[in-house]
Amino acid sequence: MKRLLAFWAAVLLLQTIPAQEEKxxxxxxxxxxxxxIVENNGVAQGxxxxxxxxxxxxLDLEYRMVPMSFSPMLDSLKAGSIDISINPLTxxxxxxxxxxxxxxxxxxxxxxxxxxxSSFQKLLQFIQGFFSLNFLKGLLVLLGIIILFGLVxxxxxxxxxxxxxxxGIKGIWDGLWWSAVTLTTVGYGDKAxxxxxxxxxxxxxxxxGLLFISxxxxxxxxxxxxxxxxxxxxxxxxxxxxxxxxxxxxxxIQFLRAHFFKNVKGFDNVSVGLNSLKNNRIxxxxxxxxxxxxxxxxxxxxGTISILPIKxxxxxxxxxxxxxxxxxxxxxxxxxxEIIETEEWRIVLNEYGLTEx
Length: 357
Known about the structure:
Number of strands: 12
Shape: rod-shaped
Number of domains: 3
CATH architecture of the largest domain: 3-Layer(aba) Sandwich
Domain Solute-binding protein family 3/N-terminal: 25-355
Mean pLDDT: 83
Transmembrane segments: 135-156, 200-221
Distance between the termini: 71 Å
Helix content: 40-55%
Membrane topology: Multi-pass membrane protein
Number of helices: 13
Strand content: 15-25%
CATH superfamily of the largest domain: Periplasmic binding protein-like II
Radius of gyration: 36 Å
Main location: membrane
Organism: Pelagihabitans pacificus
Largest sheet: 10 strands, mixed
Structural class: alpha/beta
């Protein structure tokens, strides 16, 4: 009887060992986010993978990598279906309510990517600047001044100066020619007033010309400048009325909506968003600068996309853990701090073209 009881006790013990091992195996969720997580032939690599492998080795952690999409990964982490995400998650107050964060291992910022315009598009915008409403209004006023002073000049000079201002229709043309030449300060000298009233009209026309031509030039320059800003804006606020994209459920898209961007479109990942930008479905794509830079540099199809020198929304990256993994988070955070203080960490960042802020 004792032998039988011992036998069944041994069987039960053997059955519980695999279950205990499976329970202790951490489920590590991740999704591609180059250069932090790069997947080559189904194998995860990159800065975060290197960091996690070092931490897991030092803490003797058993784990299993679980590839996931970004949004399902966050949902699984919040629900406790996975234990940890090694993606470069931005620490936010809302996320901190639903998950634990390790100590930050990298600080970054958001930036704006735009599609470069072709030479033909730039030429069209330049030409359109001359047909703006302000320019057309100025042109009409200019023609009105020329006609008015041309008729006045001809009226006063047609008898006193018939050599320069002939009678009839030809004389009116003489007056318009003289008015245009005087207004634009060209001053050919082929026609000049001789009567007192004609000279007074000429003085008024010359001073009016100086003021008006200066204003018209400024209007044209302003119109061209506005068009140039529209194609190559350097201000964050330039994009608030435009179609702007970012990745769903990220700190970047939350930032855009919190700062009153009116037309924000969410995408499942960076690749889809950048391709939409390349195909002119959106006018700008906002996301983390190191991820955008790496993606554009390594993807030859994105050669028409460039990053503007705009930096905002400083972000601190960390690993995320399920809410009940407080003790594990503290152990991982301590090890992360020790690793990022080493020269080896700086070498790894440099290999992927990154530097610490």
